[in-house]
Write a structure and sequence with these properties.
Number of strands: 11
Structural class: mainly beta
Order of helices and strands: EEEEEEEEEEE
Distance between the termini: 37 Å
Shape: globular
Largest sheet: 7 strands, mixed
C-alpha cells in the first residue's frame, strides 16, 4: 500500500490550504482514510477520518474549519483547511486502514501557518 500526499505549504493566519492523498495497492472503497498531524514536540494526533460509508470524525480543534472528503473513483482523500491558525502548524500525514484492519501512513506534508 502506498500513499502519496500533496498540498502542504506556507499560509498566513486565516488562510486556506487543501491537502490531497492518493492511495494505491488496496481496495480504497473499503478502507477508512484520514489525516493525522504532528507538531514539533507533540505526539501525532487525529485530525479527521472518513469511513467507507462516508461517516466523518474530526478533532475538536478543527471542527467547523476543516472538511474531509473522499473520491473512491480517484482513490483520493482530501482535507480542505480553512481559517487556519498558527497552532495548525504541523506535518500532516495521510492514513489508511484497509478492510483487513492494517494501517499505513503517507510520507507527510508540512503545513506552516504564520501569524
Amino acid at each position: 500500500v502506498q500513499l502519496q500526499a500533496s498540498g502542504g505549504g506556507l499560509v498566513q493566519t486565516g488562510g486556506s490550504l487543501r491537502l490531497s492523498c492518493v492511495a494505491s495497492g488496496t481496495i480504497f472503497s473499503l478502507s477508512a482514510v484520514g489525516w493525522y498531524r504532528q507538531a514539533p514536540g507533540n505526539q501525532r494526533e487525529l485530525v479527521a477520518v472518513i469511513t467507507p460509508p462516508g461517516s466523518t470524525n474530526y478533532a475538536d480543534s478543527v471542527k467547523g474549519r476543516f472538511t474531509i472528503s473522499r473520491d473512491d473513483a480517484k482513490r483520493t482523500v482530501t482535507l480542505q483547511m480553512n481559517s487556519l491558525k498558527p497552532e495548525d502548524t504541523a506535518v500532516y500525514y495521510c492514513w489508511i486502514s484497509t478492510s483487513n484492519s492494517r494501517a499505513y501512513w503517507g510520507q507527510g506534508t508540512l503545513v506552516t501557518v504564520s501569524s
